[in-house]
Structure prediction request, 279 residues.
Amino acid sequence: MIEYLPRSKHHAELHLTQFGREDCTPGHYFGPAVRNHYLLHYILGGEGIFEVGGKRYRLGKGQGFLIIPDVVTHYQADAVNPWSYCWFGFNGTLAEFLLKQAGLTMASPILHYDRDDMIDQYLQLMIESREFPKSRETRLTGLLYLMLSSLAESGPLTLPNPQESQAEIYAEKVKDFIELNYAQKITVEDIAQYIGLNRSYLCSLFKQRTKTSIQHYLIQYRIRKACEMMENAELSIGDISRSVGYNDPLLFSKVFKKVKGVSPKRYRTEGKITSHSTS
Prediction:
């Protein structure tokens, strides 16, 4: 069986284009040819070959292969023990990234997944999604995300880019945490616990990479967001204060003036005064 799906207008990041399942006849083949979307085959039983980039892979149950858009591939069922497989066609701006998380790339197109029958179960759930016509597109997208997350969890460990230093990796994690949680009453200790490093060691790595302290970066980020919020006339200074992690408006005004050189009220009324920034 095969089901083709309409172009998604709402899920540009990731969306299914088709899915299906087939018990192949002996010697059944496709290609050499190219596809215009990602196509992931998972072998449920039997054997066959997959060819791409001048390489040939003999594959069987619990394995699979990835076809990348615009890349010539050829695959063929075994003449004696032909394979049965299911497949998932998809596309989207996040597709390549999610596949890389699962260890699937042009250089490494072979899937190994024999821990359970979840892939077959996801296919069945996709078929059953016909029972939910109003929300089917979203349901199918969610199932595709879940399937790719299962593959990523069971895939090879993704090693950091050797060009990235440990200081750079942890510094980015600190920045990400602050950008997501600056509105909360977070501390440097909270950040260290989240990342899983000793507070002093993390502070040292961050300063090595950014030439500033975590606390200073947090304050600067909060004040920068506060300045952006000043554009919204419906927000009071108190609203802005609480929105950037300061429940005490007086403390917020003190910190703001230290960073910008003027009070929040004056900054707003006099229109983005160019002011000094303290370290």
The chain has two domains: 2-154, 166-269. The CA atoms of residues 50 and 56 lie 6 Å apart.
